[in-house]
Write a structure and sequence with these properties.
The complex is a heterodimer.
Chain A (H helix, E strand, L loop, with lengths): L12 H30 L3 H10 L1 H34 L5 H13 L2 H12 L6 H6 L8 H12 L1 H14 L2 H8 L4 H30 L2 H7 L9 H10 L3 H28 L1 H8 L2
Helix pairs in contact in A: 1-13, 2-13, 3-7, 3-8, 3-10, 3-12, 5-7, 5-11, 7-10, 7-11, 8-10, 9-10, 10-13, 12-13
Chain B lengths: L2 E10 L2 E11 L4 E5 L6 H9 L6 E6 L2 E2 L5 H4 L2 E3 L11 H10 L9 H14 L15 H14 L4 E5 L7 H18 L2 E5 L3 H7 L2 E6 L2 E6 L1 H6 L4 H8 L1
Parallel strand pairs in B: 3-8, 3-9, 6-7, 7-8
Antiparallel strand pairs in B: 1-2, 1-4, 4-5, 9-10
Helix pairs in contact in B: 3-4, 3-5, 4-5
The complex binds adenosine-5'-triphosphate and magnesium ion (MG).
The site of adenosine-5'-triphosphate has 12 residues of chain B, from strand 2 and helix 1.
């Protein structure tokens, strides 16, 4: 029989099996099982019960609020992320490292702290609060406050995804475009954007998932007014605290479904553009 | 339409990369910039192409104050060492790029662009590769595509920064012969950076030997070889 040699980078079978089993075991126990249980709990009162909890006005209001907050925060952070990544990757300036650290700040600061910062600024005892109250502008305990903290906690996602990508790509292709007569905007649209679109998409998806799921920061500024300033995660907690388990799990399941939908969308795009992705990774 | 480079200087932070480089290239000539690593060849070429700005000095080309014009209006045909092809575009789209970004009034029609691409691919001897992506080409083929892309905009000046640096000796020889043929055909003024002196002397009408941001000697290849003006040049050429 011919002896089979291992490639230098190939691991023995037993190691492959163990690593595979550990990975699958972890995912099954810590991720899949709880998810399945959650859906089971949500369906405790049957499909009709599920439907009733889902279409209950306060639940619908929380879904609407979460979607509005994400619909505002995600596009803004996308624009911001592209601008920041562009500045950092393509220009040389003093304080660049400091800027990168600042962009990371929302990741390292606890979301509760993020919420409190805005209370300090916009609260009645705060810095701008009284002035705003005089002009009848409500920031805290209203949509603007929720949107602001959502922007704060999600703003690194797109930038973080794009910065290494754009640094790695360098300026060669943009320089080539300039010598071929392209304007700055044409260069961005035709050269830069196609090169970063996968990283951008991934950043947007992550940003969106976090925007919908954010709890701590929103909790501080929302005021928890049922059916008015409760986002989906806040509504889940409210139902849970009121021992409405079926209701809580229904909204939680809805939240999870939104996340799964995002992932499905990502996989679909990756599958649809597999060739292009492969071409982009090869050099 | 000659190219006149006069006492161009450029500092990076405090480091002087160019220390008053001057040379005059007649219209349609082929100039090789030769010199050791760090002597400022790339910097000078990028200043000519509008990718870098000079601190002082002047460049005139075709009676224009070249340094006052942004890269995109100079339309230099620039060929980079690392190809810098647009990875996500096919060969045809790469070559057509410079034509497609023109304002509508100056943009050729779709079929004209298609014909241009085809004839350029013939010129660089890659017929039929329109639909490939850069990742599906060899290094030599990529550089030919880069050359075709630079020529598509009908540049009056062709700038090449060690375009064949990453290729093996045989391919280099083929490509430089093709480059010379294309240069003569297109009637451009070419500045060609290389650190391979055999290549520089074989292909150019004029050779500029650079050292420490200055042009140490400038002249026809035979003259430079026969009468090195400084010990540096004679030593550099004897290696
Ligand atoms: N962006 C930059 N920032 C700082 N210094 C630079 C920069 N670009 C070039 N230099 C310096 O300027 C000098 C000239 O560089 P240049 O790239 O023009 O050399 P070169 O002749 O092209 O060398 P090579 O043959 O290695 O490509 C070098 O000492 C280099 O370190
Ligand atoms: Mg160089």
């Amino acid at each position: 029989m011919k002896k089979r040699y291992l490639k230098p980078t190939e691991d023995p079978l037993w190691l492959k099996l163990i690593l595979g089993a550990v990975t699958i075991g972890f995912i099954a126990v810590l991720l899949l099982l709880p998810l399945v249980l959650m859906f089971k709990e949500a369906l405790a009162n049957g499909l009709n019960g599920f439907w009733a909890s889902m279409t209950e006005p306060d639940a619908l209001a929380s879904v609407r609020l979460s979607l509005i907050a994400a619909a505002i925060a995600v596009p803004l952070n996308t624009v911001f992320g592209i601008a920041a990544a562009w500045a950092i990757a393509k220009y040389d300036f003093r304080g660049k490292t400091f800027l990168v650290t600042l962009i990371d700040l929302p990741f390292s600061v606890s979301p509760v702290v993020a919420g409190l910062i805005y209370v300090l600024v916009f609260g009645m005892q705060g810095w701008l609060g009284p002035t705003l109250a005089d002009h009848d502008v409500r920031i805290l305990f209203a949509l603007p406050g929720i949107v602001l903290v959502t922007i704060f906690v999600t703003f690194p996602f797109v930038a973080r995804e794009l910065i290494p990508l754009m640094v790695d790509q360098g300026r060669d292709e943009e320089e080539a475009a300039a010598t071929l007569g392209a304007s700055g905007f044409q260069t961005f649209l035709r050269v830069t954007l196609p090169n970063i679109k996968w990283g951008l998409l991934y950043g947007i998806l992550l940003c969106n998932a976090r925007a919908l799921g954010e709890f701590g920061a929103v909790s501080v500024v929302s005021g928890h007014i049922r059916g008015v300033t409760n986002t989906m995660p806040l509504h889940v907690q409210l139902l849970y605290d009121n021992y409405d388990y079926a209701g809580a799990f229904t909204v939680a399941a809805l939240l999870a479904m939104l996340a799964l939908l995002t992932l499905a969308l990502k996989s679909l795009l990756e599958w649809r553009y597999a060739d292009e992705l492969a071409a982009a990774h090869r050099r | 339409m000659s190219l006149t480079v006069d006492s161009v200087t450029k500092k990076f932070r405090r480091f002087p990369a160019l220390n008053g480089a001057s040379f005059v290239a007649p219209q349609g000539s082929f100039v090789s910039l030769l010199g050791p690593s760090g002597s400022g060849k790339t910097t000078l070429l990028r200043i000519l192409g509008g990718l870098e700005f000079a601190d002082s000095g002047s460049v005139r080309f075709a009676d224009l104050n070249w340094l006052d014009m942004p890269a995109r209006t100079r339309n230099p045909g620039f060929v980079f060492q690392q190809y810098a092809l647009f990875k996500h575009m096919t060969v045809a789209d790469n070559i057509a790029f410079g034509l497609k970004v023109r304002p509508r009034s100056k943009r050729p029609s779709k079929s004209e662009i298609q014909d241009r691409v085809k004839s350029l691919l013939d010129l660089v001897q890659l017929p039929g590769l329109e639909q490939r992506y850069p990742s599906q080409l060899s290094g030599g083929q990529r550089q030919r595509v880069a050359l075709a892309r630079a020529l598509a905009i009908e540049p009056r000046m062709l700038l090449l920064d060690e375009p064949f640096g990453a290729l093996d000796a045989k391919v280099r020889k083929e490509l430089r012969a093709d480059l010379r043929r294309i240069h003569d055909h297109a009637g451009v003024t070419t500045v060609f950076v290389t650190h391979d002196q055999e290549e520089a002397f074989a292909v150019a009408d004029l050779v500029a030997v650079m050292k420490d941001g200055r042009i140490e000697q400038y002249g026809a290849p035979a003259d430079v070889r026969r009468n090195p003006r400084t010990p540096f040049v004679s030593e550099f050429l004897s290696v």
